[in-house]
Amino acid sequence: MPKPIRSYAEFWPFYLAEHRHPMTRALHLLGTGIALALIATAILTADWRWLIAAVTSGYAFAWAAHLFVEHNRPATFRHPVWSLISDLRMLALWLAGRLDRELVKHGIAAPHA
Question: Which DSSP category does 110 fall into?
Fold first, then answer.
């Protein structure tokens, strides 16, 4: 039985390991980006129905990635808040061009030659 995760510092490397495959990360980033755009649409239009679309798209891309690509169970079920924070953190690192470095740091990806 795996050791329980007790802090976000322990969760982050676990989260990255659960997203080893580049296609999994790509689908997560796509879903998170669409969800953020839909949240912005909800705010700008004051039509809160867009929030339903935001949640649906964010989870649909992520869960499809876990089911069809990574073949593991999304961490959302065990750690929903930390998973959301980590989705946003992964997106921010990718946008900043630092995601590969973070993957290498935690042993998820090999250093580039």
Answer: P
Pair 74, 62: CB distance under 8 Å: yes
The domain segmentation of the chain, as residue ranges, is 19-105
C-alpha span between 80 and 87 (Å, rounded): 11
Task: Encode burial over 82-107: b for 16+ CB neighbours within 10 A, e otherwise.
Answer: bbeebbebbbebbeeeebeebbeeee
CA dist., res. 36 & res. 25, Å (int):
16
Dihedral angle sign, alpha carbons of residues 35, 94, 64, 104: negative
Alpha-carbon gap, residue 13 to 34, rounded angstroms: 25
Model confidence pLDDT, tens digit, residues 45-68: 999 999 999 999 999 999 999 999
Single-letter code of the amino acid located at 76:
T
Phi, psi of 46 (to 5 degrees): 55, 30
Cα–Cα distance measured from residue 88 to residue 67, given in angstroms and rounded to the nearest whole number: 21
- Total-model pTM: 0.89
